[in-house]
Amino acid sequence: MPDRRAFLKFVAASPLLAGVPSIAEALQQGGLEQAADALDVFDFQAAAQKIVPPAHWGYLMTGVDGEETLKANREAFNRYQLKTRRFIDVSRLDLSVELFGMKFNSPIVLCPVGSQRAFHFDGEAGAAKAAQAKGHLQILSTQTSVGVEDVVKARGGPIWYQLYTTDNFEVTAKLVKRAEAAGCTAVAVTVDLPAGRNTETMSRLQRTDTRNCASCHEDATGNLANPRVGSGTNANKPMFAGINTRGLGLTSPSLTWDFVKRLK
Predict the structure, then answer these.
(1) pTM surpassing 0.90?
(2) Tell me: the pLDDT tens digits for 170-208?
(3) Do the domain assignments include residue 59?
(4) Phi-psi category of 31—alpha, beta or left, where left has phi over 0 and alpha has psi -120 to 50?
(5) What CATH number is attached to the domain comprising 171?
(6) Checking DSSP bridges between strand 97-99 and strand 102-104, what pairing results, if any?
């Protein structure tokens, strides 16, 4: 605990945060006096954008190209409606669902989001505690900033593992075996990345971010440590600890159903 307090004092004194509002200030600027005043989760969006650095916000909130698919997804969900039935006993409601033999309190899922320590000190472990509190399914990203073992421990039960297939099956097998050994009961394979993606909005926001990001995005050799770009001898992502990521691609352009058969 003393180490954490010292770290927080150091961060608070950092010139990189000069002019950045506190969480309390951001909530007030977003029209909220405190978190409990939010009527739904989207009330936090304006407050969050004020305190999250531009590059991180772009990573979290934006899509690809002109974001047509992102907009289409939202418009599609807006067309869904709840069918109301009358003369139904609602004194005891059950929203639980069962997936692959596991029961969850509701169909709400914490979907895989990488690098969560970019947004909160507790990262994916903090999200796991929230999932445990409400009985939700959590899916952990390959790009997690907290090791899968610690996340499963924080969740207090099994989670699923989102897999970037990489372009080296030996590396992929190590990732899956580690997730399985930690207690992950299912693998969610990402299939929409082999052709690459053009994250225009994120790239534009990165240009407006004046912070020095080297301490987080470079390894001990001074190379970029994100295996997405295949540089760095040791990735700073926990799932790639001990794996040589130089030249490693996060996905394979030749990904087919044969990969799934081999993975099984």
Answers:
(1) no
(2) 999 999 999 999 999 999 999 988 877 888 888 888 888
(3) no
(4) left
(5) 3.20.20.70
(6) antiparallel
